[in-house]
TrEMBL record:
It holds the Pfam family PLAT. This is Pancreatic lipase-related protein 2. Keywords: Cell projection, Cytoplasmic vesicle, Disulfide bond, Hydrolase, Lipid degradation, Lipid metabolism, Secreted. One of its GO terms (biological process) is lipid catabolic process. Signal peptide: none annotated. The keyword Cell membrane does not apply. It catalyses: a 1,2-diacyl-3-O-[alpha-D-galactosyl-(1->6)-beta-D-galactosyl]-sn-glycerol + H2O = acyl-3-O-[alpha-D-galactosyl-(1->6)-beta-D-galactosyl]-sn-glycerol + a fatty acid + H(+); long chain 1,2-diacyl-3-O-beta-D-galactosyl-sn-glycerol + H2O = long chain acyl-3-O-beta-D-galactosyl-sn-glycerol + a fatty acid + H(+); 1,2-dioctanoyl-3-O-[alpha-D-galactosyl-(1->6)-beta-D-galactosyl]-sn-glycerol + H2O = octanoyl-3-O-[alpha-D-galactosyl-(1->6)-beta-D-galactosyl]-sn-glycerol + octanoate + H(+); 1,2,3-tripropanoylglycerol + H2O = dipropanoylglycerol + propanoate + H(+). It comes from the Eukaryota. Its EC number is 3.1.1.26. It comes from Platysteira castanea. It is found in: Cell projection, Neuron projection; Secreted; Zymogen granule membrane. PROSITE patterns: PLAT. GO terms for cellular component: extracellular space; neuron projection; zymogen granule membrane.
């Protein structure tokens, strides 16, 4: 049984026979997309974990792409009717949009087991544990026999619009050069499954021999990494023409470590 942002008003805090609960089926998976409190946030979705596995994409409260201004959202690509509906309940309706995207992307929407969204964002719950990560949505039941604990909260990030799935990578760069310089470092990944755009790994003071780490949510599953593009810039003309390179770049995929 898949719960697509099950309702909060009149259901949250009620006995299990009144609302959706993991006792309702052999396997219950939940996608929480609008779990902020109803007052004052008008959250329509239930916030506690109530299934065998509970996914909290983007933290489960505010979905990317739902903060657009009303006019741009109502006159949406999908037409005025869908745009109006999305404006009223955008976060709530993201759950079924993620689910329908998940059918097309069997390898997408990996949910990372974590104590909180903040810890997930910091990279504390990366990579997937040995048994792997479940896929949010249509293929969540493939994980049915791998559940160990009683309460499994899973976190992931999604895109702002279709197509929604993102793939998480840990990118570590050790710099080489003669002197420190201010600026930023960007990295793009190339692989058997496609190429990513450039992602900023760090900005500020760049010191040779220092190592910088970032977690990136790429909109493509790179597959086997074949090439990494390294770019740095200091945004202004420096008469000393400093040179900076990458001594090493390490890329770790969350899915298979």
């Amino acid at each position: 049984l898949s719960g697509l942002d099950p309702a909060q008003p009149y259901f949250q805090g009620t006995p299990t026979e009144v609302r959706l609960d993991k006792s309702d089926a052999d396997f219950v998976d939940i996608i929480h997309t609008d779990s902020a409190p109803t007052i004052p946030n008008l959250g329509f979705g239930i916030s506690p974990a109530i299934g065998h596995i509970d996914f909290y994409p983007n933290g489960g409260k505010q979905m990317p792409g739902c903060g657009k201004n009303p006019v741009s959202q109502i006159v949406d690509l999908d037409g005025i009717w869908e745009g109006t509906r999305d404006f009223v309940a955008c976060n709530h309706l993201r759950s079924y949009k993620y689910y329908s995207d998940s059918i097309i992307y069997p390898d997408g929407f990996l949910g990372y087991p974590c104590a909180s969204y903040d810890l997930f964002q910091k990279g504390n719950c990366f990579p997937c544990p040995e048994e792997g990560c479940p896929n949010m949505g249509h293929y969540a039941d493939k994980f049915k026999d791998k559940i160990k604990g009683n309460l499994l909260k899973l976190y992931l990030n999604t895109g702002e619009a279709k197509d929604f799935p993102l793939w998480r990578y840990k990118v570590t760069v050790t710099l080489s050069g003669r002197s420190k310089v201010k600026g930023y470092v960007n990295v793009a990944l190339y692989g058997s499954g496609g190429n990513t755009r450039q992602y900023q790994i760090t900005k500020g003071t760049l010191k040779p021999d220092n190592t910088y780490t970032a977690y990136i949510d790429a909109d493509v599953n790179v597959g086997k990494v074949t090439k990494v593009k390294f770019l740095w810039n200091n945004n202004w003309i420096n008469p000393t023409f400093p040179k900076l390179g990458a001594a090493t770049i390490t890329v770790e995929a969350g899915q298979n470590r």
